[in-house]
Amino acid sequence: MAKTHPLGFRVQPEVKEALEQAAKADMRSVSSLCEKILTEWLQERGFLAKP
């Protein structure tokens, strides 16, 4: 799937640091982890169809 729609937002420094640690532990980029977290949250609440 082509990623064609960038999304930018600001977070507190401690949130960014935690994201970086979590992404490293999961062997993925911060961007990839954010997409995973957002996708799962949207699916759980019925805003996005589960594959």
From TrEMBL:
<dbReference type="InterPro" id="IPR010985">
    <property type="entry name" value="Ribbon_hlx_hlx"/>
</dbReference>
<dbReference type="InterPro" id="IPR013321">
    <property type="entry name" value="Arc_rbn_hlx_hlx"/>
</dbReference>
<protein>
    <recommendedName>
        <fullName>Arc-like DNA binding domain-containing protein</fullName>
    </recommendedName>
</protein>
